[in-house]
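WARN no homologs supplied; continuing
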Amino acid sequence: MSAGRIVFISLVLFLSACATRSYHYESTKSFPLQDRAVTQTQGHITVSASVPGEDEAQAIFGIPIYQRGIQPVWIEIQNESTNRIRFAPTSVDHDYFSPLEVAYMHRKGFSKQARSEMERRFYRSAMPRQIPAGETRSGYVFTHASPGTKSFDVEIFSANEDQTFAFFIAMPGFTPDYKSVRFDALYDHSEIRDYAASDVRTALDGLPWFSMDQSGSEAGLPVGIVIIAPGIDLLKVLLRAGWNESAKAQDVKQTANAQYLFGRVPDAVFRNQRQGNRERNKLNLWLAPVKIDGKAVWLAQLIHFIGQKTPLEQAIFGARIDPDVDDGSDYLMQNIWYSQSLERVGWLAGEGAVSVESARFDFNSLEYFSDGYRTILWLSPEPISMLETRHMDLDDPPLNR
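OK structure emitted
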């Protein structure tokens, strides 16, 4: 036997001997998941849902599944109808993890018996796909982890109909940045003007076209997006469209380099990830002192980060954004449209046109150019067909839109 083969066999035997960990977990009933569950009823079907925090999930399943980007969602379905119903886990997450897949991903270091116990634990904890008439079933769907409020649907099918339950569940231990903002105290009531939708041009006249630096002396990036929706509707639409909330910035440098509008940092920041953390879209939102048809008006800017791929590179060389800021506005419009949340859309020409040949730099040395148009989005709190989105008769959008 060759020396190399002897070394290989010895290594395998050594690693096998190290895999001696036993498997321990706690019952779901040991944690207040059911107490804080959100419950909805449609006809004879009642659905409750809750999401364990990271520490709760580790105790319930005996392994740190959040560290692998896996987030369990607990669901209970009560079927008081006379028909058997079927639950579709793909409605919660199109790319959900199967129970035995999660167990397999965490098999290393456990003894053979422990791995078998883990597999049984995950298999038995899964949410059943069928619920007989007059019965109740509960279990977990293993989804991709997302920070902040968890947004998902639970779809139920029977011989006669299908039903969709939309959930927005706050995660324990996470406080989004907008929770620290007193929106009702941002402006005096006398400052807030309310206009009809037909007067949207007048309503937006005079609102700033650019953010500023912390001192208010240097210009930032264009604010090319206007969103018309109550705050709760805006939150639900963004979550449904795949955006994640941000925690309040604690870093002094972050605050100093932030984009300011109305003399303050964004009231809320949302992000969506592309290719892990290497590329991201950042959406800054500010509540404006204006209402349209009684609905809140939000000024927004979407920043698409490109270029530097690691935190170290960004710390040394700075961030790089897509200088075509109008493409960011179009991306958000399409993103909301495709998520079936866009009621109306329109464009208004204004100041701030910057040609590609004469691109400018903001106070953070971020290059940009823009056609100087604002994209105006009216949001729908309920899903609306893409074909039902109305185009507002304002200004014709630029040809490159």
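The chain has two domains: 17-169, 177-391.
OK
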